[in-house]
Amino acid sequence: MAVTIIKGLCIGCGVCTQMCPSGALSVQVKTAHVNAKMCTECEECVFACPNGAITL
Question: Of the candidates 49, 6, 31, 29, which has an alpha carbon nearest to the alpha carbon of residue 20?
Answer without folding.
Answer: 49
